[in-house]
Amino acid sequence: MRFTQSFAPALLLLAGVAQAASSWGFDDGTLSVVAKKGGAGVKEKINSKSPLSKPVTLGSTDTLKLILTATDNGKGKRPHQAFVVLKDQDTGLEAPFPLTVKESGKATVQISHKDLPVQFLLATEPLKASIVIGSFGSAKPLDTPVFNIKIETDSAVPPPAYEKPVRYGKKAEIHHIFRADPKSPPAVISIFFALAVVAALPALFISWLLLGANLNHLPKAIGASPVSHATFFGSIVAMEFVFFLYFTNWTLFQVLPVIIVVGAATVLSGSKALGEVQSRRLAGDR
Amino acid sequence: MRSLLSLIVFLFAVSVSAVSTTGNRLLAILDDVADKDNYSKFLGDLASRGFDLTFETPKSESLALFHLGERKYDHVIFFPTKTKGLGPNLTPNILVQFLNANGNVLVTLSSGVAAPNSLVSFLAELDIQLPADRTGLVVDHFNYDTASAADLHDVLLLPTPKTVRSDIKNIFGAAAPADSVIAFPRGVGAALGASELLTPIVRAPRNAYSYNPKEQAQVVDDLFAAGEQLSLVSSFQALNSARLVLLGSAELLQDKWFDEAEVTKVDGKKVKTYNREFAKRISAWTFQELGVLRVNWIEHHLSEEGAVNVSNPKIYRIKNKVSYTISLSEYTYDSWSAFNVPANDAIQLEFSMLSPFHRLALEFDKAHSTKDAAAYSAEFVLPDQHGIFNFKVNYKRPFLSNVEEKNTVSVRHMAHNEWPRSFAISGAWPWISGIGVTVVGWVAFCALWLYSAPPKGKKESKKTQ
């Protein structure tokens, strides 16, 4: 009894060891890169313990060939799953390539550029290749990184086009770019020219005075026809004032009737006032 | 005592029963109506949420999705059926029509039963590919239930769903306990096309693969799909927000994988399944109980100082400052609540004429939000281009129903009296003073012409000039 008690755990332990020991692996792993136009390719031995330190280069016309023998507990056996999984280290995209496995466990796979998804051809980092071997039953499956592949594309051929599929999500913001506001020259320049223009007025008046301009006939004209002269000159000033109001805040239809009234006053008073001016001319005063 | 308690619980459940936003008439298609006993908990959950279940077999003559051109049911569940086709009442064409008429479909598959041709064609129409010969089985030698599938490895233990992108709300796995798993027994995987309407809910683990158990029993030579390319639970949401979910394993919904079911991971750890809650959420999402958005109101107005504050005017002027507010609610099982935009996502407003001139993120507006409605608003200056514009909110996200709102307004150009006055523009000063000088000069000239006496003694010289 005592014996069985001490023996049973030992048996269990043994069984456990046996089960743990039953695991998938591979032997005789060879990796070769064969160029299409002959030439010496690369040939490397691979094993599941340590991945190759240097990445293997795969050119656009090369073929990568991988040969290995899948083993269960050291003996060659055919697993159900024997894949080489390539992984793009930037995006995490993975593509499995199943190996062709014989009854003995001997498995091969050939990979060239046309087998690879287009994203891999555009990858910047070397692809990480893992070997996955697993099958039904209790044997422990294997998933181990073995080598890295650097994809070399032909520089003469344009790189394949890859367009990311549409996915719903927020889009980049757009802020409308407004047209630039109209700009004025520096105020100093405007003021200078405005003053120059204003200065023309005194210049005009002074030159008139120098030429002998005067208002000496004013009393005579007012005396002859006071109402029409006051109205005529007043209407000319009023017309300018109406234009000033139009400039500041009146609208066109406010202005028009006033212009008609003022204009009529100009015409009616003008005939009398200008008649008086004519009479002065005929009298030889002008 | 216990049955009385369960009766009370049941009555309570019925009294607070939720109803989907699009109706509660649910049709279940089964091979044999007696099969439903396997799914009693799942179907009981559906009934307690207020669905009115009808069971039919594909052979039934009374089976019809439409009656006089109107939908007869709001939702359909397909359980695996052994028949090769589904008869004249469930052709792919009718199923597409059903989606177009806002009906929702939950399709479940099982590796033991070949998928009916009608469903395969229907799914192909949506760009969902099933394995060749309508049969497939997903296995994973790294990650299976050692208790029930020690040898065949066909009961996958999947981690609870996580969102791939940080801007998507986790609808399906949000409430999952830390170390629970979804048991996925004897399921079929699908390969999804590149359409933006398709979203995988659960992808296969990286070492899982699909094979044909009839032809590839010895070794997998021709791979249908493997790893993350294989979608185990897939969703499709049409532009009209009608939903379809393809559940790779119908057995996942069976009572034996619910609640207390325990599975053993490869490392020997026993864990509880998340299947019941997952089934509830999957069906709730499909039947429009989760992730349904509603626009309560939209308001826009002039946001200038001293302007009249009229809501939703038909016309604005270029360069007006305008504010826009939209109010959204989200439905969860039985009630509307305020919709909170997931972190890293944003509701965007486009102000567009043919193409967007502005695309701006709408900010949460607390002043206009209530408990069951969240308001989002933006304030911006209209572009300096006149024409007919749209305020457009096009919020389409995976797992949320589509929101597409368009409000048209005219944008007029500046009226002549809305520009700055000429005296306010420094460049105009010389010209304005020129006018002033001309006016004064003209009046002075008139006075001079009317009233000036000829200068004395210069008469002769002036005439000669």
From TrEMBL, chain A:
The terms describing its cellular component in GO are: oligosaccharyltransferase complex
Q: What is this protein called?
A: Dolichyl-diphosphooligosaccharide--protein glycosyltransferase subunit Swp1
The alphabetized list of GO BP terms reads: protein N-linked glycosylation
| PANTHER family in UniProt | DOLICHYL-DIPHOSPHOOLIGOSACCHARIDE--PROTEIN GLYCOSYLTRANSFERASE SUBUNIT 2 (PTHR12640:SF0), RIBOPHORIN II (PTHR12640)
Q: Which residues does UniProt assign to the signal peptide?
A: 1-20
Q: What is its main location?
A: endoplasmic reticulum
Species name: Podospora fimiseda
Q: Where in the cell is it found?
A: Endoplasmic reticulum membrane
Q: Name one Pfam family in it.
A: Ribophorin_II_C
Protein topology in the membrane: Multi-pass membrane protein
From TrEMBL, chain B:
Q: In which pathway does it act?
A: Protein modification; protein glycosylation
Please tell me whether the keyword Signal is annotated for this protein. yes
User: What is its membrane topology?
Assistant: Single-pass type I membrane protein
Q: What does the record give as the function of this protein?
A: Subunit of the oligosaccharyl transferase (OST) complex that catalyzes the initial transfer of a defined glycan (Glc(3)Man(9)GlcNAc(2) in eukaryotes) from the lipid carrier dolichol-pyrophosphate to an asparagine residue within an Asn-X-Ser/Thr consensus motif in nascent polypeptide chains, the first step in protein N-glycosylation. N-glycosylation occurs cotranslationally and the complex associates with the Sec61 complex at the channel-forming translocon complex that mediates protein translocation across the endoplasmic reticulum (ER).
Q: Where is the signal peptide?
A: 1-18
Q: What is this protein called?
A: Dolichyl-diphosphooligosaccharide--protein glycosyltransferase subunit WBP1
One biological-process term from Gene Ontology? Answer: protein N-linked glycosylation via asparagine
Segments crossing the lipid bilayer: 428-451
Q: How does it assemble?
A: Component of the oligosaccharyltransferase (OST) complex.
**GO cellular component annotations, sorted alphabetically?**
oligosaccharyltransferase complex
The entry's localization annotation reads: Endoplasmic reticulum membrane; Membrane
